[in-house]
Write a structure and sequence with these properties.
The structure holds two protein chains of two kinds. By secondary structure, chain A is an alpha+beta fold. Chain A has five helices and twelve strands. Chain A is flat, with a radius of gyration of 36 Å. Chain B folds into four domains: 30 residues; 272 residues, Cytochrome Bc1 Complex, Chain C; 76 residues, no CATH class; 50 residues, no CATH class. The two termini of chain B are 36 Å apart. Classes of the chains: A alpha+beta, B mainly alpha. The complex binds protoporphyrin IX containing FE and FE2/S2 (inorganic) cluster (FES).
């Protein structure tokens, strides 16, 4: 190493050494600050700031050390090909083949081994999977809405025909099922779209007494609650992916990715003026699934 | 008292007598690492993962993975008296009552976002430089798996607090599972333990999040690093660099210090983010209630492309099969199952896809410069643009508000851009790449030049350590100068040569800075 170079590098070195030292000192200050903040009850911004100083001090200090105070080369190293030399490969193959030929001589045993492991896997895997949860069976096709279910609010209050003004909206449940977890499936959005009986579609002549329309609140796209009623356009909006459902035509989707109308719940008003369902939904609610069919 | 060297040698001797590690350790310490800023991307991912583990362990001491409903009596006044799950209540507790809890939570969340971002950018660097080619296909596939697992674990962690937004995310996840043909409803019921929502999903997500997935991720990271170590880094082409050598800094001590220090720098940045930049203020969203919905339903950034795909998908649904009681392939299947399936499938298989075209089966240790591979580069740019458009589409409502136009216009614009922009940007990239391909000297490393004023008042050129070499190397970039010297036999052999070609490290006399 020539003298000139060692002098310049020494000068650079002492500078780097001082910088690294300063960083490490800053780190100590930061850690002490962190400890003090913590001791005194904690404060998120200060904790973050001091933690930053504590870590960055060590980090910058050590990187400076590694970059300016130890030899950097560049050095060169040979890089042999990954592939082993031919004789090594041949020896490996020979060993492999020897073992396989020793095993495969017992054809029958080999098959039996395959069979036993396979049976073990199948017989154990399926019960395991099965105990993770129940079979879906019909549960995706039904809700707790029955013939005559009273509409109640989340707090269980019975909804009567005088509860909503025209333009009003309410989330309702079948009485007795207003809490978790069934409320996730049974949730219905009740809209009063007019003051007179409404027919959204042929065949639904009696479903909308005095302008009350009830739809499953579970979006037919990906299941979010269709939470927003836009009174002006009489549309329901699902905020997840902006599907819009037209209330007056039976919640048919008019915009966005939702592929099907929200199922409508047929309503009637009983003698006490309470709103009730004529029956359950006539189709599965919510997003699609394989067994659903049309 | 013995010196540091003596004690280290003693410890190494202790290990060697019992484990015979001398050869491996020597090789490792003398290992040469090529140096380039883009090699730090993977390191950022690694260090973020370490930060995730540390902060995550802290969170496990206070988080209660239960959907048991409780009435909140804690110190956050606006939510007092509300019904909520223990999971949500304990996250409030971490945020407001546990000392340093909020910082830890926020660092954890930031680290997750940075972790996945670093993985993605790291993957892009591997892609555009062709570093996935033989012999590195295995690490490419492990990396793809890591990306998938990181996204899944991020989503699951995001779901744990059981707030209104993350709960809505879980609802969508259930619907996506449900949409898988044939097995969908079984899968959804087995994972959730019942129809949605049930009471099992938070505890199950918890054990997946804190144990099972991190363990798999850690094991894969281990394999990833071991393979990288064994195969050695790729390096960028340059004078003196060949397919059969590695040029760079030694592992011990230069690289070890730099990498170790860089861990602390990464952690420091995450700490600053976690302390100073609010993320996921779940107390503003409220607890999850299945029939309530929040306006700003926006997932973490790495889920954005899926959310965008869900929004852009037309409202098609496939019904088929015998008469009316046939089968359905639901709408969300295409954007949320098929699209990610194809995405990760293509990423996974890319080394073989490219090989099918190039028929190049040879080993590559020198990185491509993106402009040397116009087709790969333009395909890559096009694909990235495709996902950027999907990502933008996750904000259709925000875009419509910002530009004061209709949602419909935004939707159709993005639908068209989704197909036009990738093709266009790929094409433009191709033209640009072809253009600069022929420019001389683009990308050639420039040699640093110093101009000095001498005592006599003249100006003189000097370069990096050139006087030191005592030769007229002034016009040569440093690696050339270095290369000539090594091949001239001036170099000192750094390591015992009789131990085989693979382990020689040759320092350059006079060390170039
Ligand atoms: C693959 C790496 C990981 C990723 C991407 C990740 C991501 C996340 C995210 C985004 C959250 C939500 C935080 C919030 O805003 O509340 C979270 C929560 C949580 N994570 Fe992780 N995490 C990872 C590893 C771990 C590990 C290794 C542990 C523990 C050993 C852990 C423990 C927790 C706990 C207990 C919570 C819930 C606490 C809370 O929400 O406040 N995580 N995680
Ligand atoms: S869940 Fe309603 S639009 Fe997607």
């Amino acid at each position: 190493m020539s003298r000139v170079n060692s002098i310049t590098s020494r000068r650079k070195g002492s500078l780097a050494e001082r910088a690294a030292g300063a960083c490490l000192a800053v780190s100590i200050v930061g850690t002490v600050g962190l400890g003090a903040t913590y001791w005194l009850g904690g404060q998120p911004q200060l904790e973050g700031g001091f933690l930053f100083l504590a870590l960055a001090g060590i980090g910058v200090g050590v990187v400076t050390w590694g970059k300016y105070l130890v030899p950097q080369g560049p050095y060169v190293q040979d890089r042999p090909e990954m592939k082993s030399p031919e004789p090594e490969v041949a020896a490996m193959n020979a060993s492999l083949e020897r073992g396989i030929s020793q095993i495969s001589r017992r054809r029958f045993l080999l098959r039996l081994l395959g069979g036993s492991v396979g049976v073990f896997a199948v017989v154990n895997l399926f019960p395991f999977l099965r105990s993770l949860g129940p079979l879906p069976q019909k549960s995706l096709f039904v809700t707790n809405w029955k013939k005559g279910s009273k509409l109640v609010t989340a707090s269980g209050r019975i909804v009567t025909v005088s509860d909503l003004e025209v333009g009003g909206v309410l989330t309702v449940f079948p009485q007795g099922f207003e809490s978790a977890p069934s409320n996730a499936i049974d949730q219905v959005v009740l809209v009063r779209a007019a003051s007179y009986d409404l027919v959204t579609r042929p065949g639904r002549e009696t479903w909308g007494p005095q302008g009350y329309l009830a739809f499953s609140k579970v979006c037919t796209h990906a299941g979010c609650p269709v939470g927003l009623y836009q009174e002006l356009t009489q549309q329901l909006l699902c905020p997840c992916h902006q599907s819009l459902f037209d209330v007056l035509t039976g919640a048919t989707p008019v915009f966005g990715p939702a592929p099907r109308p929200l199922p409508q719940l047929p309503l009637y008003v009983d003698a006490e003026g309470a709103l009730r369902s004529q029956s359950g939904f006539d189709e599965p609610i919510g997003p699609g699934f394989w067994e659903r069919g049309a | 008292m013995s010196s540091l060297e003596e004690r280290a040698v003693q410890a190494a001797g202790f290990a060697d007598e019992r484990l015979g590690v001398a050869k491996f350790t020597r090789k490792s310490l003398n290992k040469i690492f090529p140096d380039h800023w883009s090699f730090m991307l993977g390191e950022i991912a690694l260090y973020s993962f370490v930060v995730l583990i540390f902060t995550g362990i802290f969170l496990t001491f206070f988080f209660v993975p239960s959907t048991q409903q409780v009435i909140y009596h804690g110190s956050y006044a606006p939510l007092r008296g509300q019904r909520m799950s223990e999971a949500y209540a304990s996250t409030l507790n971490i945020s407001f009552n546990v000392r340093a809890g909020l910082v830890m939570r926020q660092i954890h969340h930031w680290a997750a976002d940075v972790f996945i971002a670093a993985i993605v950018v790291h993957l892009l660097r591997i892609f555009f430089t062709g570093a996935f080619r033989r012999p590195r296909e295995l690490n490419w596939m492990i990396g793809t798996l890591l990306l998938i697992l990181a996204i899944v674990n991020g989503f699951i962690g995001y779901s744990l607090p059981d707030d209104l937004i993350s709960g809505t995310g879980i609802r969508i996840a259930f619907s996506i599972l449900l949409s898988i043909p044939v097995v969908g409803s079984y899968l959804a019921f087995f994972i959730f333990g019942s129809n949605f929502p049930g009471t099992s999903i938070i505890p199950r997500f918890y054990i997946l999040h804190v144990l099972i997935l991190p363990a798999i991720i850690a094991a894969l990271i281990g394999a990833h690093l071991a393979i990288m170590w064994h195969q050695k880094h790729t390096q960028y082409p340059g004078p003196g660099r060949t397919e059969r050598n590695v040029v760079g800094i030694p592992f011990w001590p230069a690289y070890a210090l730099q990498a170790g220090g860089f861990f602390f720098i990464t952690a420091a940045v995450l700490a600053a983010l976690g302390g100073l930049v609010q993320i996921n203020p779940i107390w503003l969203y409220g607890p999850y209630v299945p029939y309530k919905v929040s306006y700003a339903v926006q997932p973490d950034w790495y889920m954005g492309w899926l959310d965008g795909a869900l929004r852009l998908m037309p409202s098609w649904e496939t019904v088929f099969g015998p008469t009316i009681g046939g089968h359905m392939i639901p709408n969300v299947f295409f954007p949320a199952v098929l699209l990610p399936g194809i995405t990760f499938g293509l990423i996974f298989a890319w080394p073989w896809i490219e090989r099918a075209f190039t028929r190049d089966r040879s080993e590559h240790n020198l990185c491509d410069r993106p402009r040397e591979r116009p087709i790969r580069t333009s395909v890559g740019v096009g694909v990235v643009v495709f996902y950027v458009v999907l990502f933008l589409a996750s904000a259709t409502d925000v875009l419509a508000n910002t530009f004061e136009t209709s949602l419909n216009l935004v939707l159709w614009t993005l639908r068209i851009l989704l197909f036009v922009l990738p093709i266009l940007s790929g094409f433009v990239t191709y033209l640009l790449v072809k253009e600069i391909e022929h420019l001389p000297a683009v990308g050639t490393p420039k040699a640093g030049v110093e101009i000095r004023r001498t005592i006599e008042g003249n100006f003189e050129l000097s370069g990096l350590g050139r006087e030191a070499a005592g030769e007229k190397a002034a016009e040569l970039p440093e690696e050339v100068a270095y290369h000539q010297r090594t091949t001239n036999g001036h170099a000192e052999i750094y390591d015992a040569p009789e131990l085989g070609l693979g382990e020689r490290a040759v320092p350059v006399e006079g060390g170039l800075s």
